[in-house]
Amino acid sequence: MTDDPQRPNPDALLLQADSASRGRLKIYFGACAGVGKTWAMLQEARRLRAQGLDVLVGVVETHGREETAALLDGLEIIPRRVTDRSRHHAFDLDAALARRPAVILMDELAHSNAQDARHPKRWQDIEELLNAGIDVLTTVNVQHLESLNDVVSGVTGVRVRETVPDPFFDAATDVVLVDLPPDDLRQRLKEGKVYVGDRAERAIENFFRKGNLYALRELALRRTADRVDDQMRAWRDASGQDEKVWHTRDAVLLCIGATTGSEKLVRTAARLAGRLGSEWHAITVETPSLYRKGVARRRTVLHTLQLAQNMGAVTATLSDPDEAQAVLRYAREHNLGKIIIGRPTPSRWIFRHWLSGRFARRLSLLAPDLDLIVVAPDDAYPPNKGAVAEGRAIHEKWRQRLHGCLAATAACTFITLFSKVFLPGFSPINLVMLYLLGVVLIAMRFGRLPSIVAAVVNIVAFDLFFVAPEGQFAVTDAQYLVTFSVMLVVGVITGNLTAGMRYQAKVARHREQRSRYLSELSGGLSRARLPADIAQICQPVVGAALFSRCEIWLLDHQGTPVAPESRTLSTLPDAGIMKWSVDKGQIAGAGSDTLPGLPYKIVPLRASAATLGLMIIEPDNLRHLMIPEQQRLLAMFAMLITGALERLELTRREQASRVTAEREELRNAILAALSHDLRTPLTVLFGQSEILTLDLSAEGSKYASQASEIRLQTLSTIRLVNNMLDMARIESDGFRLRTDWVALDDVIASAMRSLEAILPAEHVSLDLPSQMILLQADGPLLERVFVNLLENACKYAGQAVGITATRWQDKVKIDVWDGGPGFPVGMEQQIFEKFTRGHAESATPGVGMGLAICRTLIEMHDGKIAAANRPEGGACFSITLPLPPLPALGEEPDNT
Asked: Taking the model in full, what pTM does it have?
């Protein structure tokens, strides 16, 4: 049955089924522009078309290169579409999906799409094409990879804004490295084969310096090598070829043990990995012998492993009774060809010295294909901080062994007396079984050494009292020598096995206890609904698991730790130390490197963003807290509690966001309904007031001024209602621009005419360019912006108002200023929020909607608006709008 094929992995089968209907992505990868990625992609497209495949050109950027453009001859090119907000042509994704070719070419993977495109990035368009079963050929440079963006920025000094996520790059079916030496690339630049015109000379002096090209080339080669290494590992895992390490790259594995691990060993491995330019791993194997070394030795191993992790190693803790087998299994799984171990400390005892070198000999015997590097130990070991505690532990261990030896002697005496008094007629062979039973019982209760003593004492007692001649060590029958030998061997083996099982049961019991505490804590945290519930659930569980008293201090809105309702600590923690732990996110107190003399330990509950609270542990015995297993359990507790607090915080934010969204939706609905119902009566009221004003003025009535004031206030209310209705329409996505070519001075003049009653034209200072400024905008909505700004200025500043327009390059800046009191300090940005006013208790009429409408409408025109106080006094609103290129003579305007 061992020859049966292995059951396939369900996840792998699902991945194969999904990839069967998904298109293939082939990326042409290079160090920078000009290495020939587009050329190689077009050559591949022509080869596929010659094979009869349906090849479609989606996007290919030739950048004016005639040789590249010539390769497009004979290839079908999909027409590009014109975007809504500009006259730039963009890739037509819907047309490509409807055309559904076998292969499509999409140059410049990291390109950003137009604002009205379905996806903001081109790689997202490619993702949709791949999901539709279309194969894609594309190109990308190394500086566009998200993980290398900051590295490239540090090398070249140029920050690339367009990036591609690394998972998308790694998911590509094929990656083809297109490489070119720096000297050849610079020569191509000089010949004008990369950039046309004077751009080539500027590129050679700036981005394409030879040092930059060397660094980019190295990054591209290393990134491609990492991908190939991942593919090689995946193939070995899938094909079962992981029995042998392939030395395709130098990778180092450091083994840290109780007698072969030191800081020198870690630094040696780090230096070797640095010289080789490879990754390195550091592991330790938890064996029963490691547990018998004592707490101080295990703590040293844990400290050494932490040092390796801080120096950049990938660390792991394995659990296996056979240390050599565990190390070799890990090396083969991760394809690590060099194993570094430490040379054990020399021993005066020959047998002990032979045992210390057994690990290296087993590695050499079991893995002749691996390189084994043995590092000499430190010349002088630093004093062990836990020497006193370790001495006490050893004293306690030998005291227990002495009690076991005395118990073995007492058990032998009891068996001998019992056999002499109650079993006088039993044969010696049957009595041997009683003595072996005593050895087993001693081994189960006291361990290995007392069981060996019991076996020896039992043999002596059996010889003296049950083997003729009795009372002497002389043996008349030689067969009893075999009995003695078998009895000794069986007793020792049985004692060792029983002691080992006893120890394994003890370890399993402790692990089960820790697992039970973790399970209990996880179950309690899953039921917690408030942060205070977490504190009540965690304190008793953590305290019982760590033999200590525990408190969970949560942070208030100011970041100050708040004591829990149920206090368990005997001393009040120092507020300054807690504040330091919150700010630094580091452990302080007993057993740490910061204030180790404190009777308690402060563990920050730190999430990815910030510290959420503190867990304070006050152990009954510090030695219990320093056990490595307990430290790992403490770290696991902290991680679980932090995750629960973060979950509650995210839930709270999600609920607050949902309530805010629902409140905004309800308010917008009420505003829309209210505004719609108010428009009809206000329109009637305005018409009647205007008729009344005209009639009273014609008659020369003294009430004509009051009628005119009613008309003005009605008109102001109508504008306010229109603002609320427009905001409701905008937020309900029922608002679209109707753009056309409009003159800026016409828009401003129309806005001033609508406010002539409250702001005469002679009171507005205009400073507009003599040359007409044409905007592609929605004229009525842009007029609404100036009406709101001018009305706002008239409310707060009287009639000291001005408008200034400045044109530069492809933008126009318009300043609407006044001579009023200006904005309150810090309110320059908040005034653009809905229902926000500069002075909440002001007597000036309004509800704070006008500026919010202005910002929304300007942003819909791809512009920006900002507010600031003028140095000479008053407020200033600055509007920046784009100036698109004017249409050619006879060309139809782009109305959308």
From this structure: 0.51
